[in-house]
């Protein structure tokens, strides 16, 4: 399978050829991944709190 030419980088496009650039890209990827983990954790905790509050409210009425 070949890559379509319209997706190919333009002439003179910069790539991460130096080790410093690759390290910068790797650290940026780690930072963005950890932000996603924290966001997922916050959403999970918030969802659990909502469910617990609803269960408590239903138990208190009955």
UniProtKB/TrEMBL annotation:
Domain of life: Bacteria
Region (Disordered): 1-35
Keyword Transmembrane: yes
Transmembrane residue ranges: 37-57
Protein name according to UniProt: Uncharacterized protein
UniProtKB keywords: Membrane, Transmembrane, Transmembrane helix
Keyword Transmembrane helix: yes
């Amino acid at each position: 399978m070949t890559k379509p030419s319209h997706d190919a980088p333009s002439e003179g496009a910069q790539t991460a050829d130096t080790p410093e650039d690759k390290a910068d890209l790797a650290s940026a990827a780690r930072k963005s991944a950890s932000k996603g983990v924290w966001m997922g954790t916050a959403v999970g905790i918030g969802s659990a709190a909502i469910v617990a509050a609803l269960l408590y409210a239903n138990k208190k009425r009955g």
